[in-house]
Amino acid sequence: MLVDLLAIVDPDRAGRWADAILERHGSLNAALAAGEASLLPVVEYQTQAVALLVAHRRAALFALREQVAAGPIVATRHELIDYCRQRMAHDRDEQLRVFFLNGRRELLAEEVIARGGPEGVMVRPRQILARALEVGASGLTLVHNHPSGDPAPSDLDRRFTRKLAVAAEALGIRLHDHLIVARDGQYCIAID
């Protein structure tokens, strides 16, 4: 597939480029998550090749997101897991994405609320809840990534989840799920 995409730009160098991308990054998704600047030297500074790969990823993410939005947002739904793993699992920095939901768990909005570094992300429950009130959400599903590759939650992840659930409940908002995605899998933190 990667060779076929790159062959659109240069059939003679497509195989070499594909091999170099996979050797350097391990996977196409990891390469795209690393960013355009990381791909440019690998494809010999052919900006058309990079633009094609980026456009392909955007189209794939759009298609995956459409499937997520077509039904209730539930952390165990394969569509949500697939979308979030493709979108976030290979990112070098941690981010917290929030799916704001109505009473039927249908998507009202999806936003990255906070970005951090490779070791974590700092966010306060009030940031999430203020935005939930702005969009009229009655429910939330959180998703964040672990750049380390290990989806196991930290003690801080668990404490934050409990704190947010309690604060949200006081405002009539339900925290449905908190999903962690990583290269090596995913983990859903139980909401008490």
Please explain how this structure is put together:
It is a single chain. Helix 2 packs across helix 3 and helix 5 runs antiparallel to helix 6. The mean pLDDT is 92. The relative contact order is 0.12. With 192 residues, the protein is of the alpha+beta class. It has two domains: 61 residues; 118 residues, 3-Layer(aba) Sandwich (Cytidine Deaminase, domain 2), CATH 3.40.140.10. The chain is elongated.
Residues in helix, %: 40-55%
What is the domain tally? Answer: 2
**CATH-wise, what's the superfamily of the largest domain?**
Cytidine Deaminase, domain 2
Total DSSP helices: 8
CATH class group of the largest domain: Alpha Beta
Return the structural class. alpha+beta
DSSP strand count: 5
| N-to-C SSE string, H for helix and E for strand | HHHHHHEEHEHEE
CATH architecture term of the largest domain: 3-Layer(aba) Sandwich
Q: Enumerate the strands of the largest sheet in spatial order, edge to edge or round the barrel.
A: 2-1-3-4-5
Radius of gyration: 18 Å
| Average residue pLDDT | 92
Shape: elongated
N-C termini distance: 43 Å
CATH fold-type name of the largest domain: Cytidine Deaminase, domain 2
